[in-house]
Amino acid sequence: MSDYPELRLLVGGEVISASARETIDVLNPATGEAIAALPLATAADLDAALEAAKTGFAKWRKTSADEREGVLRRGAALIRERSKEIGAAITREQGKPLKEAIGEVIYCAMLLEFYAGECKRQYGRTLVRPDGQRVEVRHEPVGPVAGFSAWNFPALNVMRKIGGPLAAGCSVVVKPSEETPAGGLGIVQALIDGGVPAEVCQVVFGVPDEVSRHLLASPIIRKVTFTGSTAVGKHLAKLAAEDMKRTTMELGGHGPVLVFKDADIDKALDIMAGAKFRNAGQVCVSPTRFLVEEDVFERFRDGFVERAKAVRVGDGADAATQMGPMASARGPDGIQSKVADAVERGAKLSAGGNRIGNQGFFHEPTVLSEVPLDATIMNEEPFGPVALINPMKGEAEMVAEANRLPYGLAAYAWTQDVSRRMRLASDIEAGMIAINAASVSAADAPFGGSKWSGYGLEDGAEGVAACMQSKTVHENA
Ligand code: NAD
Fewer CB atoms inside 10 Å of the end CB: C or N, the chain? Predict the structure, then answer.
């Protein structure tokens, strides 16, 4: 297939192709058909990757900040140059519209450029005592990192696993999702072509639980970073605890959106409907529970339904498509059972609710309203194109509902009242809050959650700090 690359493992400078290993098929979610064979790493490959990561770390940690910055900038330039090609592969394996896929790749370059600059901002400090004693605080890279990422952002999730470690001076073994391998491979190949030594950044695929158990059992790995579900995050955190490895966990959410009657409702509708159906709702920070002050509830729900019905769903490779298929067969199956449960418990189905066609993994943009709190979908992340819209009595009730779940990733609020904005910024339990906005992500700002949505941060200066450990040296004159 011309717009989909040959898949491979990148282990310590060796490129291992599909013909050399057991394989699994990668599917195009728009058709359900296999588009490529993905090689799976053997235990010996994983051991080789660990040894290479050890050697790579010993070298990379000694490089100067300027050298690391230069290499990362060259990698970022190549990612920009290859953005259309990597984007096209992402659309084929994951389904999102091509424009979104290319935007994802460009964002990877922006993030890497920010991290490149951070290489030389890893300052230590020296405390000088009156008696001549000095205390030196040094920040050192934590060691080889194992990264595991999900399929919803095939390139960006991988960049978030490797960018901070590489800037800090760590080596990385990353396992992108087996369902969407090309996006991450494209990013890592650009970094290697830009000058990152092959032992410093490696890519493996396999049976996820077997790969993570193998890598985490090794004392070579000093940090684990994961993007995916809370259930798997808890499992990996337990494995990491066995060897006191550091962890960064970017897990699920259940984004509340508080819409007050004083808000610019049309603007809120335009922006939040766009955000809800982006990537078919398969976004960890997707807005999900719309908590709307009752005076404007009907207007908001009707406006949302109108926008949901207008979304053009189709193959992401088609330029007219606004929402592609879901990434795998699990997507529409999961949405169907959660919508049926909600309707059975009394929710109103205001738009969508059905699969589309019998080919690929398409699902209609869906709106449920007046959804009872005991419906599964009000408690478990739908991770699909479904908005839940409920009328609320006022700020106290809205904040209580926003905080009811154990998740705390992204939250959104729409209000013109400045005092209220300050209260919400303080009272909502979330790692990120957008007020009168939909974006919670910027290369120079930390990205991460609270409660069951995880801990540890990516992006921003914090993304590099998370890959450093401090050492304090006390010295007498
Ligand atoms: P999942 O956690 O089962 O899988 C996510 C990724 O983790 C996949 O690529 C999978 O291959 C990998 N994985 C699974 N088990 C693993 C293991 N034992 N060791 C290493 N890697 C492992 O989740 P899913 O059902 O595929 O995806 C949907 C859920 O993921 C959503 O409900 C959402 O909560 C979560 N998610 C969160 C984010 C985020 O940024 N926070 C992003 C994507 C998905």
Answer: C
